[in-house]
Amino acid sequence: MKKESPYHYSEFTDPISCDFTTSNMAGNVDFHMHNSHEIYLLVDGHIQYFVENACYDMSPGSLILFSNREIHKAINTSNEPFTRLVIHVNPTYIRPYCTPLTNLLDCFHRDPGKNNLVLLSQTDHELLISMAKNLEKAIKNRRPYGSDLTALTTIIQILILINQAWQNTGSVKTAPRPHRAQAIMNYIDDHLTEPLTLDSISLALSLDKYYLSHLFKSETESSIFQYIVVKRVALAKELLFKGHTVSEACHLSGFVDYSNFIRTFRQTTGCTPGQFKRLNP
């Protein structure tokens, strides 16, 4: 079960979710983030996936991971239907089952936008699909005896498989591809806490602002403003998690107006900064 917001944020209220979906467009059309970690397997079709400022070309069998700190969005350049498996996991639900030798959340504890893509062997791919179908069934059929434990033990097995594959995946083989908006994103990321306008970015990059805006939109199917807003909220989340006050997080993440920060944070994350801080002591 999830709730949508104006910034296409999905707040998953259940500890885990698992769905196979086929459509010709992604569920979220803009850069967004979740309160959960996400496992995304492309079953068939071809899409591009942006994570932070990186872009990955995905083909059937491609597995990509997103932590609850990473902004991301899918782009279907072909407009043909594509099928994907999407699993969301609330880290607070899984954390009690981690051990000193087996951190089930290890594959999500990365620098944002780094080493997101995972290579699966054919055997692991088939096993993941099989386990995901069992997980989906257990989540949807909550009343039958044992369905809760089946869901729990299955997601643990899935996380073990994915972490093993992630550890065995070389970063060279899964490197993101260059894209035309890279320089714009890099500049925004490097100057995120400073005043940013279309004029200031175009001046710094020596590009006409209308060309700049069109280039970013044509490459990412989102606006520069939307990217900046979600990146600043992601930074604010990180600052709050590290112990900063709401006021400090506001100013250190590049927001000037406090009221606008509160409103935007809630629209983008599903909760106020104060609520987020209380939930992540």
UniProtKB/TrEMBL annotation:
Keywords: DNA-binding, Transcription, Transcription regulation
Signal peptide positions (record): none
Keyword Transcription regulation in annotation: yes
Top-level taxon of the source organism: Bacteria
Family annotation (InterPro entries): AraC-bd, Homeodomain-like_sf, HTH-like, HTH_AraC, HTH_AraC-typ_CS, RmlC-like_jellyroll
Keyword field contains Secreted: no
Pfam families (UniProt xref): AraC_binding (PF02311), HTH_18 (PF12833)
Protein name: AraC family transcriptional regulator
Organism of origin: Lacrimispora defluvii
Lineage, top ranks: Bacteria, Bacillati, Bacillota, Clostridia, Lachnospirales
